[in-house]
Design goal:
Shape: globular
Number of strands: 18
Strand content: over 45%
GO molecular function: diaminopimelate epimerase activity
Pfam family, one: DAP_epimerase
Radius of gyration: 18 Å
Structural class: mainly beta
Function: Catalyzes the stereoinversion of LL-2,6-diaminopimelate (L,L-DAP) to meso-diaminopimelate (meso-DAP), a precursor of L-lysine and an essential component of the bacterial peptidoglycan.
Helix content: 10-25%
CATH superfamily of the largest domain: Diaminopimelate Epimerase, Chain A, domain 1
Catalytic activity: (2S,6S)-2,6-diaminopimelate = meso-2,6-diaminopimelate
Bound molecules: ligand LBFN2T5F
Organism: Salininema proteolyticum
CATH topology of the largest domain: Diaminopimelate Epimerase, Chain A, domain 1
Distance between the termini: 7 Å
Length: 264
């Protein structure tokens, strides 16, 4: 089976081209391919499959978390997916539509970066997350997938959080699990770390960055409908533009290897 490997700000993915839509990957196949010791290694897997007929997009991003579970959306995954389509000639031009479980998304080339229209950030109820005997208030945000954005206080040290553990969250608010972001700083420049559902701590999370940026703007000015936020993640920096209609995420995305595997 052919594969490629890519990442966006250190959020890394195994890419599996399945251009005729014939492969069926079981959750255990995905977990093995994403295993960093026994497999290729990645925070998730992107299967490249044809979009349904009638779609504006030619390709569907079949995204899986490293544990084999499925998620609705992946912002960095989408940027890497588009980079792969362009590198391999599966897509061309400056504007590339892609189908996802969270609907049609559009990516554009932005110099060296890939910029994606993530759709609007939808705020839900206030909730909280606990870790190591501390509890932080959080804002739930949907970017197609669920997020809980927790602002740390000035005295909290982002670097010292132990994200080897899943933060405790309210399962009544998040019955399908949640990605939890911890944030320091204020609009227009914040830093975050994330514990991703189905993965663990990752170096970056595009949907999480978009959620964090929307919360930062809202905390700055609850009436503001647009703004630009710079978000630092352990794997680099992403830029977010918020408009009244949508959220744009921009940053680097690269394919670093190609090969074949007999794992699945
Ligand atoms: N890394 C991703 C998010 C991947 C999905 C997430 N783990 C979930 O289960 O919702 C991103 O870049 O957005």
């Amino acid at each position: 089976m052919p594969f490629a490997k890519g990442h966006g700000t250190g959020n890394d993915f195994v890419i599996v081209p399945d251009t005729e839509g014939r492969l069926s990957l079981k959750p255990e196949d995905v977990a093995l391919l994403c295993d960093r010791r026994r497999g290729i290694g990645g925070d998730g897997l992107l299967r490249v499959v044809p979009a349904e007929s009638g779609s504006e997009a030619e390709w569907f991003m079949d995204y899986h978390n490293a544990d084999g579970s499925i998620a609705e959306m992946c912002g960095n995954g989408l940027r890497v997916f588009v980079r792969y389509l362009l590198d391999t000639g599966l897509a061309d031009g400056d504007v590339i539509p892609v189908d996802t479980r969270a609907g049609l998304k559009t990516a554009v080339l932005d110099g060296e970066n890939i910029r994606v229209d993530m759709g609007p950030a939808e705020f839900g109820e206030a909730s909280s997350a606990s870790l190591d005997h501390y509890t932080w208030a959080g804002q739930s945000v949907s970017m197609g997938n669920p997020h809980l954005v927790c602002q740390l206080s000035e005295s909290d040290d982002l670097q010292h959080l132990d994200l080897h553990y899943q933060p405790v969250f309210d399962a009544e608010v998040f019955p399908e699990g949640v990605n939890v972001e911890f944030v320091t700083g204020h609009y227009p420049h914040v830093a975050m770390r994330v514990h991703e559902r189905g993965v663990g701590e990752t170096l970056s999370c595009g949907t999480g960055v978009a959620a964090v940026a929307a919360v930062a703007l809202n905390r700055h000015d609850a009436d503001a409908k647009e703004g630009h936020v710079t978000v630092d993640v352990p794997g680099g920096r992403l830029e977010v533009d918020i408009t009244p209609e949508t959220v744009f995420l921009s940053g680097p995305a690269v394919v670093v290897a190609e090969g074949t595997t007999t794992l699945a």
